[in-house]
C-alpha cells in the first residue's frame, strides 16, 4: 500500500509539472475561444488576452485583434480599418506586435511623427470570407474610420456563406476553455478530429462574394470613407506549379469587377513575384510569415 501511494504521488506530481509546463511555456489550456453569430457565422469572443507558443494575442471588446478602442475616433487621429481572414488576423503563430495591422500602424506613425496619430483596427477571424466581413461591418459599423481595407486571399473568392457549424465542434473553433492543458493536447493531437457538417450552397459563390465586396464598398461610401481592396496570392500562384485555370479566370473576373465598380484594388501578386525567394514570405500555402 505504501508503495502504491508513493507511485501515485509521483504520477500526480509529474502530471502537475506537465500541466504547469504546458500552460506556462506553450499556452495550452488557454486557447482563443469563439462565439457563434447568426449573421457573421462566428467571431472571436471579446476581451481575450492569451499567450500561445510564445506569442501574445489580444482581442478587444469588439472581437478585433486590436487593443481596446473608443467607438468614436478622436479628431486628432487617422483611423484605418483592416478587415480580413486569418492572413490579417495572424492566428496563434503571430505575436500582436507582428500582425499586419500593427506593422502598418507603427510604420505610419513613424513617418507622420507628432502631427497625426494613426490607429489601425483589425477585425478578422480564421476562414472568414467577404460575406462574413460584410456581416461584421453591418453589425458593428465602421467605428468612424476614414479608410476601410478589405484584405482577402485568392481562396476567399470561393468562400461559402457564413455558418456557425464549426463553433464548439471543430477543435480550431472552441467555444470554451478546456479543463486542463493536458486535455487540450490530447484532444488536439491524439484524438481523431470530430466531423463537422459541410455547408451546402448552390449557385456561383464567386458572384456571391463579389456582391458582398460591392456592399462593403457601398457601406464605406455611405460613411464618407475610402475603400481599398487588397488580395494576397496563394504560394503556388507566385511560383511553381502556378495558378490553376479556375483561379486565373476568377482573377480576371475580379479585375473586371473592380474596374466596373471603380474600386481601388491592390493585387499583391506582381509584388510577391518580384521577390527572389517568395517561399520565404509564407509559412504555408496561404498564410504569410510573421
Structural notes for this entry:
It is a single chain. The protein starts with a helix and ends in a 17-residue tail after the last helix. It has nine helices and nine strands. The chain is α/β, with parallel strands linked by helices. Helix 4 runs parallel beside helix 6. A hairpin with a 3-residue loop joins strand 1 and strand 2.
Helices, strands, pairings?
Layout: H1 2-26, E1 34-37, E2 41-44, E3 48-52, E4 55-59, E5 77-84, H2 86-89, H3 100-112, E6 117-124, H4 130-140, E7 147-153, H5 181-190, H6 205-222, E8 226-232, H7 235-238, H8 245-260, E9 264-267, H9 269-273
Parallel strand pairs: 5-6, 5-7, 7-8, 8-9
Antiparallel strand pairs: 1-2, 3-4
The arrangement of helices and strands along the chain is HEEEEEHHEHEHHEHHEH
Number of strands: 9
Topology-level CATH name of the largest domain = Rossmann fold
Specify the CATH architecture of the largest domain. 3-Layer(aba) Sandwich
Number of helices: 9
Largest sheet composition: 5 strands, parallel
Number of domains: 2
Q: How would you classify the helix and strand content by structural class?
A: alpha/beta
CATH class of the largest domain: Alpha Beta
| Stretches with pLDDT under 50, minimum 5 residues | none
Based on Cα principal axes, name the global outline: globular
**Strand ordering within the main sheet:** 6-5-7-8-9
pLDDT averaged residue by residue:
95
Radius of gyration, in angstroms, nearest whole number? 21 Å
Strand content bin: 15-25%
| Name of the CATH superfamily of the largest domain | SGNH hydrolase
Amino acid at each position: 500500500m505504501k508503495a502504491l501511494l508513493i507511485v501515485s504521488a509521483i504520477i500526480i506530481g509529474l502530471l502537475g509539472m506537465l500541466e504547469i509546463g504546458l500552460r506556462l511555456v506553450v499556452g495550452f489550456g488557454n486557447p482563443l475561444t469563439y462565439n457563434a453569430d447568426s449573421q457573421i457565422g462566428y467571431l472571436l469572443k471579446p476581451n481575450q488576452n492569451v499567450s500561445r507558443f510564445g506569442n501574445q494575442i489580444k482581442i478587444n471588446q469588439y472581437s478585433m485583434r486590436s487593443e481596446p478602442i473608443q467607438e468614436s475616433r478622436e479628431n486628432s487621429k487617422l483611423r484605418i480599418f483592416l478587415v480580413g481572414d486569418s492572413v490579417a488576423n495572424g492566428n496563434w503563430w503571430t505575436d500582436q506586435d507582428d500582425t499586419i495591422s500593427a506593422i502598418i500602424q507603427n510604420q505610419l506613425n513613424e513617418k507622420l511623427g507628432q502631427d497625426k496619430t494613426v490607429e489601425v483596427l483589425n477585425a478578422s477571424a480564421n476562414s472568414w470570407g467577404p460575406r462574413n466581413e460584410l456581416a461584421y461591418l453591418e453589425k458593428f459599423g465602421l467605428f468612424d474610420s476614414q479608410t476601410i481595407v478589405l484584405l482577402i486571399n485568392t481562396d476567399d473568392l470561393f468562400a461559402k456563406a457564413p455558418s456557425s457549424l464549426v463553433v464548439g465542434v471543430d477543435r480550431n473553433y472552441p467555444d470554451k476553455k478546456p479543463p486542463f492543458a493536458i486535455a487540450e493536447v490530447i484532444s488536439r493531437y491524439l484524438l481523431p478530429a470530430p466531423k463537422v457538417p459541410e455547408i451546402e450552397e448552390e449557385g456561383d459563390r464567386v458572384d456571391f462574394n463579389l456582391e458582398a465586396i460591392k456592399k462593403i464598398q457601398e457601406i464605406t461610401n455611405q460613411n464618407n470613407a475610402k475603400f481599398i481592396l487588397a488580395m494576397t496570392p496563394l504560394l503556388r500562384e507566385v511560383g511553381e506549379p502556378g495558378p490553376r485555370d479556375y483561379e486565373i479566370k476568377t482573377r480576371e473576373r475580379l479585375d473586371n469587377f473592380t474596374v466596373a465598380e471603380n474600386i481601388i484594388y491592390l493585387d499583391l501578386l506582381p509584388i510577391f513575384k518580384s521577390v527572389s525567394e517568395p517561399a520565404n514570405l509564407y509559412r504555408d500555402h496561404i498564410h504569410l510569415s510573421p
